[in-house]
Amino acid sequence: MKIRFWGVRGSFAMSGRDFLRYGGNTSSVELVADAGQRLLIDLGTGATELAKQLMTGEFGKGHGTVPILLTHTHLDHIQGLPFFTPFFIKGNQIRILGAAPSGLSLEATLQNQLSPHYSPLNGLENLAAGVTIETITPGSTLALPGFEVVTAAVPHGSMWTTAYRISADGRTVTLLSDVEYPSVDEPLPVALALAHGADLLIHDAMYADADYERSKGWGHSPARAGVVVAERAAARKLALFHHNPDATDDMIDEIVARTAARTQVPVFAAAEGHYLDV
Amino acid sequence: MTPFHNKLPRFWAEFWGSRPVGIEFPHPMQITFWGVRGSYPVPGAATVRYGGQTSCVETRSASGDTLIVDAGTGMRALGNKLLCQAPEPQHHHVLLSHVHWDHIQGLPFFSPAYVPGTQISVYALQTAADELHQVIGGITRHEFFPMPLEAVPASFDFHQVEPGVEFDIGGFHVTPIALNHPFGSVGYRFDADGSSWAYVADTAPFTEVLHKQHFLSGLELLTDDDRIALGAMRDALVRRLIGVDTVVYDTHFLPDEYAQFPHYGHSTPDQALDICCEAGARRLVLYHHAPSHGDDQMDRIAAEYLARGARRNIEVLTSFEGMTLPVGPEAA
Hints:
The complex is a heterodimer of chains A (about 280) and B (about 325).
Chain A: E1 2-7, E2 28-32, E3 38-41, H1 46-55, E4 65-69, E5 93-98, H2 106-113, E6 130-135, E7 141-144, E8 147-156, E9 159-168, E10 171-176, H3 189-195, E11 200-204, H4 223-232, E12 238-241, H5 249-260, E13 267-269, E14 275-277
Parallel strand pairs in A: 3-4, 4-5, 5-6, 10-11, 11-12, 12-13
Antiparallel strand pairs in A: 1-2, 1-14, 2-3, 7-8, 8-9, 9-10
Chain B: H1 12-15, E1 29-35, E2 56-60, E3 66-69, H2 75-85, E4 91-95, E5 119-125, H3 132-137, E6 155-161, E7 167-169, E8 172-179, E9 185-192, E10 195-200, H4 224-241, E11 246-250, H5 255-260, H6 269-279, E12 283-287, H7 295-311, E13 315-318, E14 324-327
Helix pairs in contact in B: 4-6
């Protein structure tokens, strides 16, 4: 299984020369199984770049098929949806899977995003591709072509998000993005179970540890939280993810250095750009 | 103001931002661009110089009155600057052209909104039966943003604008102008300090498509009534722009791109030039750049249209993030 980060930024897309090495696009992750099947997670602005690559292949001809898992529908995780060009090609089959933590259904939420006030697309029904919206019940297991996915609800401020444990080709990736535990030192058992023995744990690292105290309650973790989960769950590698919009490349370098110094688990900061072997 | 008396030297286009020391240019009003991109923010190496954030412009009069035009992602950096300048609560005025995401998604990240006592007045076209505050409040619904509008510490008030119905904010006289864009859009002419500029975004030209309140998958046949409506809209725009100093215009597309997507609701620099020349504007500023236009291409577009404008006696500049322009020829 390979993974590529297309967007690693939290909350807000950042342009400019201070954000070139790690990238300024918001959440978008692509997983590719050895047999070629794809699985996408989130549709932040990074998905607009991913879309360009997909369009050079079968999606450009209207023969593409892909499932997309949403962690939640805060804007930074869906703002690329109206510009994800495979939606505009007839014949493509795209499944969007996510939970509905607010009480409003996932379909109604995405319809609101594409309402005529906010988008000239004027509703999901105007996407030319075949699009299905499927509601996930956290805790359930999904069998997607080439991938097995375990889901769980984790706390995110006043709501919750869906975390994923994705297995393919004998490897496992766990994504715990947009999560804040009641205590950094006591991650929730559900998070530990999801990350148990994962080859790669991708974890919310919105704040430098020193900045966390004054940012509590917004639903995000300091870099240290990923270390605690990785160590307790015996994950093999930790990717810091959902970087703060104000964190420049140099600041992220420093966060990685400080985080790596406190653990035996190999740590890196997720960055836009390359396919990595899991 | 005499439209064709351009007393600014041509080198201004290359050197603005580095005003010669010791020479007083009595430009009373100014425009600062905080986001110049259309559709969605574009991070990365290709947008370092022109910028990747979406529509947001700040304008300031000689007396210090400030208006914000559009609330795209550029508004985040603007908010941080305003908060640094004046940490105490302020009254901010935000005029929206329309409420597509690229023109409003900076609003929840506008840091002054989190200072208790701040007042934010939002002006927008009412584009549907919904109340304006529901449309604006809709972007901070629980599903989209952690804090609903009602919980944001700033107080908001909402004002519906109507094309042609003029009003004043501080020292600015504001004239809303109807534009041609899906579900409706409004441009603004701002008069202050004896000069003026206009914000004309987002808009399609007034030829192939009359945008209404339904989805367009391509061109539709125009009825006679549609043609009359388009002509009237174009005439009204030109009339409102007569004698204006600077026009900031939606020039999202190059001509070949426009030919592919005439129903998307955006214009080309050539179409903007035609309108500005007819109105006798002194200067056109290209704005709302397509996400796919990287810095090198923007350089070519800027050079090409500076030359085309010069042939028609109009100064054409290309906006970039952080650009500040004084408005008005030195002896208007």
